[in-house]
Amino acid sequence: MNEHDDESDGIRVPEALDGRELLVASNREPYTHSYDDDGDVTVSRPAGGLTAALDPIMQVLSGTWVAWGSGDADFDVADDEGRVGVPPDDPAYTVRRLHLTDRQLSGYYYGFSNQVLWPLCHGMPTRATFDDEFWDFYTEVNETFADALVDSAETDDPVVWFQDYHLAHAPRHVREELPDAFLTQFWHVPWPSWGTFRSCPQHRELLTGLLANDVLGFHDETYCQSFFECVEAAFDDVRVDRDAGEVAYGGHTTRVQSQPLGIDADAHAGLAATEAAESFWASFGERTDLGDQVAVGVDRLDYTKGILQRLDALEYLWAHSPERRGTLTYVQKGSESRSRIDEYRELQADVERRVEEINDRFGTDDWTPVVYDASYYAREELAALYRHADVALVSPLRDGMNLVAKEYVAAQLGDDGVLVLSEFAGAVESLGEEALVVNPNDTAAFATAIEAALSMPERTRRRRMRALRRQVHGEDTDAWIDRQFEGVRDDRSSEDGDGKAPRWQSTPVSVWGRKQWLRERLQAADGLFVMTDFDGTVADIVDDPEDAAMRERAREALEGVTAHPRGKVAVVSGRAVEDVRERAGVDGAYYAGNHGLELDDGDEVSVHSGARGARQCLPEVCEAVEQAFAHDDVVVEDKGVTATVHYRQADVDGDRARAVVESIVTDHDPERALRLTAGKQIVELRPDVDWGKGACVDLLREQYTPDDESWLTVYVGDDTTDEAAFEALDGDGVAVAVGSDTDATAAPCVVSDPREVTDLLGWLAGEGLTNLEAPRCEDTVVELN
User: Fold this and answer.
1) Strand 182-187 with 159-163, pairing
2) Roughly how many angstroms between the first and final C-alpha of the chain, as a whole number?
C-alpha cells in the first residue's frame, strides 16, 4: 500500500482513503471543554488510551468524529448541532457531540456497556448485572449515534469507523441508511468464549449489529477465533470461513481479522525528551520521598487492572526482602473511573486503604513505599514518569491490549527500564519475549519477578529494552491503521467506471440495507401484497415436517397486513393447500399449495388441470419409495397432487436419494406424468406441467389486484423452488431470499433466518403500511442497484 507522509504528525495516510469521507464514532471524545473555578473554559485531552491514539490520525485524515459530549462547557463552545473544530488552536477535523440525558448515560454507559459487556468480555460473568432497561437505553443511544453519523455524511459512500464495545448495535442502523458506506469497527477489549457470551440475553442482537460491518478487528487472533465460535453457536444459518477470516450472514460478508493496536511511538519518545517532561520529573522528585529505584503503574481504577494484586506483590516483596525498604518506591498513577457504579467506588476505597496499610507498615519519615496520585497528568508529564521509572508493572487480570506497556517502552530513551507484564494482557503476544511475564494472581511469583527486574544486570536490561523498542516502533499506529483500511482499498478496487461501488449490484444485500428503497417503493404503490413461503420462512426448519409450526409473531404481522384496506397476503408453499392453511392460520390470506397447483382464495379450492395424471400414479410411486428407504429414516409426504421425499434425518446423501427416486418413477410412471426437482434435503415429485411458484405469483397478482392500480409485491422464500417466484417479479416487486448461502439467488435482497423474516414482516405491517399512506412520489422511478 502506498502512503503519503504528513511531516507535522508523522502519521501516514493510506492511499485507499484519498478522497473518501471519514466518519469516526466512539463513546469518549478526543477533546473536552470544561469550566474552571474562575468560570473560564479550559480544554483537556486524554493523556493515553484509545482517543489519544486516534486523535493524531484524525488530524491528518480530517472528517467528523461523533462522541458523547461529557464536558460542562462542551455545548457552549459548539454550534447548534454540537459541532466544534479541533484541535482548538489549529482545527483539523470536526467533533460532533451528542447530548445524553442522565438516564441514557446510566443505562447505556454505566449500565449495559460497563455492567454487562465489560465484565463478560473480560471473562468475569459473575460481575455482570442484567437489566432490560440497560439494553433499551443501549439500543436507543446506539441509534442516536447512527443518526448523527448518517446526518454528518456528505457522501453516499463514506468510511465509517466505529470504536469499541459501546457501539455494537450502531453499525446495523447505519447500514440501513447508508448501504454503500464502508463500515469498519475495532473491538478494543477481549472477545469472550461462547460459554460466557451466551449468558447475555441479547447476544444474538449484538452479533447481528457487529456483522453489519465490512471489517471487524480484534487485538489478537485468539479473540477472532472466540468470535467465530460465538457466531457459529448463535446462528444456524451462517457461514464461517476461518481460513479466510470471513463470516457470511444475512446476505452480507464481514471480514474478521487480528489488528494489534499500536501507538505513535515516535511521538511518545519525543514527549519524554521535552523540557516540560524533565521539569515535571524534577519537581515530582522534590515533593515525594522517592527511593533509589522507582517502579510505576498507570491505570484506570478498574477491577480488571489487577491493582490490588500488584499491591499484594509489593507488600510481599518488602516483607520478605527488607533490603528493598527505603530503596524502592512504587508510584501508582490512578485515574477515577465509572464512579457511579458501586463496584468501582468500592475498588477506589480498597486501593486507598491498601496503600495506607502498606505505608503504615513499612514507611519511614524520609521514605514512602507507595506514592498514590489520582491527579490529572499532561501527556509530557506521563512520559516523564515512564522515562524515569526503572520498572513498569503492567499486571491486568484481563486486558485486550494495554497501551501503557507500549507507552512505557517508547519513552525509555536510555534503554535501561524493565517491563513486568501480565500473561493476561493482549500486549504479551508481541512483548512477552523480552518482558518479565507474570500471573498477577500468584503473589509470591509476582514479587520474585519484581525483584528480578530490580536486580537485572545493566547489559541485560538494555538488550531487552532495545528489542522491545524495535517491536513497539514496528507495530505502531501506522501499521494498525494500514490493517484497519485494507478492506477500503479492496472495496474501491471493484468500482466501475463511474466511480460508484457496485457491490450491491451483483451480490444480494440484506433487506435492512434497503429500507429507504423499500419506503420509496411503498410510497409509490397503491397497495402491498405480501407473499411468503412457509417452511424455513415463517416456520423454522425442523427434522420432522409434521412438527413445523408458524412463528406467532409472523402470523400476527401478516394479519396486520390483511387487516389493512390496502394490504393482501398469500402463503405459497410446497405443502398441500389444506395442510398449509391449517398450519399458517392467517385470517384473510390466500393459500397456494403444492407450489401453486392448488389455490384456496377463501371461497373455493381450485386444482390445476394438468395435475390429474400425476394423481393417478403418485400413490404407487410413494409406496415404492417408502419401501426402498424403509431402513433409512426417509420420510415420504404424499400431498395428493405432489409428493416430497425428505432425507434430512436419514443417512442418505442427496445424489443417492435422487437416483433411487428417479429409478422408481421411471418404473411406475410410464406416461411421464411426474417431474423430479431437488430442494433443501428433499426431492419433489410434481406433475410434469409448466407451472410452479413463478406462475402462481403471476396468477395471484393478476387475479387479486385491481388492473388500474400498482401494487407492490414482496415475496419471501428460502428454497430453490422459490427462485421461480423471484424471477417472476423481475424487478417489478421485492424478492427476499432467506439464508446465508444465497450467492446464486435471483433475489436482490436477503434475510438470514425465519427470525429476521418475522422482523421484516413486522416492519411491513407497521412502518411499511404507513408509507402507503404517505404523499405519493409521482413520476419517480426507483431502481435497485
Assistant:
1) parallel
2) 30
CA distance 456 to 470: 20
Q: pTM of the full predicted structure?
A: 0.66
Amino acid in the structure at residue 623: E
Cα torsion at 238, 242, 246, 249 (round to 10°)? 0
pLDDT category of residue 504 using cuts at 50, 70 and 90: very low
Angle, in degrees to the nearest 10, between helices 307-320 and 443-454: 70
Angle between helices 458-474 and 265-272 (to 10 degrees): 130
Task: Give the distance between the most distant pair of CA atoms in the chain.
Answer: 109
Q: Are residues 358 and 368 in contact, defined by beta-carbon separation less than 8 angstroms?
A: no
Residue 308 near residue 443, CB atoms below 8 Å: no
- In sequence order, the 6+-apart residues with CB closer than 8 A to the CB of 89 are none
Which positions ≥6 away from 456 have C-beta within 8 Å?
Answer: 418, 464
**What is the band of 143 on the pLDDT scale with cuts at 50, 70, 90?**
very high
How far, in Å, CA of 512 to CA of 211, rounded? 12
Evaluate whether 529 touches 561 at the Cβ level (below 8 Å): no
Q: How far apart are CA 658 and CA 534, in angstroms?
A: 23
Look up residue 16 and give its DSSP letter.
G
CA atoms within 13 A on the CB side of 738: 29
Half-sphere exposure of 164 (CA within 13 A, CB side): 21
Averaged pLDDT of the chain = 88
Give the Cα separation of 514 and 494 in Å (integer).
21
Sign of CA dihedral 522, 528, 533, 536: positive
39 vs 499: CA distance, rounded Å: 51
- Could you give the residue ranges of the DSSP H alpha helices within 336-427? 342-362, 379-388, 403-411
Return the percentage of the chain with pLDDT > 90, whole number.
62
Burial 708-722 (b: 16+ CB within 10 A, else e): eeebbbbbbbbbebb
Q: Which residues contact 505 (CB under 8 A, 6 or more apart)?
A: 785
Q: How is residue 386 written as a grid cell? A: 515512564
Measured CA to CA, the distance from residue 399 to residue 80 in angstroms comes to: 38
Cell of 577: 393447500
The bridge status of strand 436-438 relative to strand 215-218 is unpaired
Q: Is the peptide bond before 87 cis (omega within 30 degrees of 0)?
A: yes
Flag whether pLDDT at 12 surpasses 70.
no
Domains detected in the chain:
100-258 (3.40.50.2000), 266-473 (3.40.50.2000), 506-608+691-772 (3.40.50.1000), 611-687 (3.30.70.1020)
Residue 509 CB neighbours (<10 A): 22
CA angle 254, 260, 265 (to 5 degrees): 140
Instruction: State how far the Cα of 177 lies from the Cα of 164, in Å rounded to an integer.
Output: 21
Contact 337, 307 (CB under 8 A): no
Q: Are 454 and 288 in contact (CB under 8 A)?
A: no
CB 568 within 8 A of CB 580: no
Residue 448's φ and ψ, nearest 5 degrees, are -65, -40
Spacing of C-alpha 665 from chain mean position: 50
Query: DSSP code of 776?
Result: P
Q: What confidence score (pLDDT) does residue 607 get? A: 85
Q: At what angle do helices 477-484 and 49-61 cross, to 10 degrees?
A: 70
Measure the CA–CA gap between 197 and 204, rounded to whole angstroms: 10
Question: From its phi and psi, is residue 519 left (phi > 0), alpha (psi between -120 and 50) or beta?
Answer: alpha
Number of helices and strands in the chain (H, E): 29, 33
